[in-house]
Amino acid sequence: ARGFGRAFFTGFMFGALFFIGMGHFLYYAVVYQYGRPAAVAVPFLILAGAVPFGGIFGAFGLLFRLTQSRRLLFFSLTAPALWVLAEYAKELVPILVPWADLGYAAMTMPVLAQPADLAGIYLVSFFLAAVNGFFAWWWISARREAKGPGAGAFLRAVLRVWRGNRAAVILCLALFALYPVYGAISSARWSPTAAPGVIRALLVQGNFSQKDRWSGMGFLPRVKSYLDLGQCLDPDGCVIVWPETVLNSTSELTPGFFSAVEEIIGRKSLLIAGGLAKDQKSTDVKNAAYFISGTGLVSVYEKNILLPWAEDEPIVDVLGDFYTAPTRFAAGQTPPCVPTSLGPAGISICLEILYPGYVRRASSLGAQFLVNLSNDTWFGDTTMPHQHLDAARMRAIENRRWLLRVSNSGISAVIAPDGSVTMRTGLFMQQAARGRFSLISYKTPYARAGNYFLFLCGLVLLASFVRVFREEST
């Protein structure tokens, strides 16, 4: 881009169009679930998503232009570091959700996702950006060096670029080769064969419509349908998981109700069910997860990170009421690592799974397996449930934990520590799926050290600013 204004505009348009292409499922939710007209849905999609995404990548374009250099070091180090920081910025904007980081593309070739246990998805995004930056640098350099038109002149320029930068090119290729080697070794170490599941899990996918969940059927008939749909048949018990907001009537959640559920699931089983919780000292409603043991233990986790616009109103209430569902939730304060009769569990509700640092916190606190309760029915048969599943798979790799994910309409899955799916359900099907998982105490470098890689990316960007300042000074 010629000039800083053009660079910002180019980045802004990329970010805005990227959001619209990636987040089209939000239009479906606003129009077909909340019943709002297209005249509301389109501006909402643009102002609440496309504009802030565009702003982030506009800033990326501006900083790219400011620090730009013709050196390979810029394309394979500085630019990828800047890209990672732009992706992390999505986690910091209150009205956004950090969808579709570049690193999730590695889930189509999982060996490239395995190094996430070293530094999270940020390292995976960095690697993919660095490889693309390497080839972009070679292409741009060859075009600049080409003497005359035609493929022959371009190929001769490619060879000249190689001869003039041989040491740097070999170093880059060697580093790039080490990455998948580590991935292959880690994949073998953490595969379901090497770390087999021994504890039985029962994932109950009710597939109720939004109207049924909030208006069309009563609380007790809905709970009974879940109990009838999936029962633990193992005398040694199992972990039964229900999706988000099944227990959605706080007035029904009495000691007598929990005692009845405990008796039904059996003494050796553990039920993890999504529901609502209400503070005794206020009228605040919270999205919650209940851990109900057959021995009488009941623990409650309250969702910490609220979904903008649906559970929280960052600016104004655009979506409004949805039957009897609360229009506004209060954020919980409970830690994401919950003690259970089986062992510490890391819990996330719905889109909390998209925040690597939050799920990492559960692992660092001692969680020996992970659970994600969700409801993707809002978004229909779009790409969203698949994106959501890929995020859960990445969290399993980052923390090297088995992860139990159950969604009201799918996709529900048992995910191994290498990110592979050992059991999954279909979309919009009523299923009770059975699988196995294990408890793991090992803490990955990412779980121990946290987001140190973001700090390193910041140092790289700072060094680039220093270089630009020195060049301008001379």
Descriptors for this entry?
single chain; 474 residues; alpha/beta; six-stranded mixed sheet; 15 helices; 12 strands; globular
Report on the structure:
The model has no long low-confidence stretch (mean pLDDT 90). This protein is an alpha/beta fold and 474 residues long. α2 (25-33) runs antiparallel to α3 (38-67), α3 runs antiparallel to α4 and α4 (72-92) packs across α15 (452-473). The strands form two sheets. It has a six-stranded mixed β-sheet. A six-stranded mixed β-sheet has the order 6-7-8-9-10-11, covered by helices on one side. The chain is built from 15 helices and twelve strands. A hairpin with a 5-residue loop joins β10 and β11 (421-424). The chain has helices at 4-22, 25-33, 38-67, 72-92, 116-119, 121-145, 151-164, 166-189, 210-216, 219-229, 255-265, 356-364, 384-399, 445-449, 452-473, and strands at residues 199-205, 239-241, 270-278, 285-293, 298-302, 337-338, 345-349, 369-374, 403-407, 413-415, 421-424, 431-437.
Instruction: Note the total helix count.
Output: 15
End-to-end C-alpha gap = 24 Å
Helix content: 40-55%
Helix/strand-derived category reads alpha/beta
Number of strands: 12
Give the overall average pLDDT: 90
Query: How would you characterize the largest beta sheet?
Result: 6 strands, mixed
Strand order of the largest sheet: 5-4-3-2-1-12
Low-confidence region ranges: none
Order of helices and strands: HHHHHHHHEHHEHEEEEEHEHEEEEHH
Radius of gyration: 25 Å
Overall shape:
globular
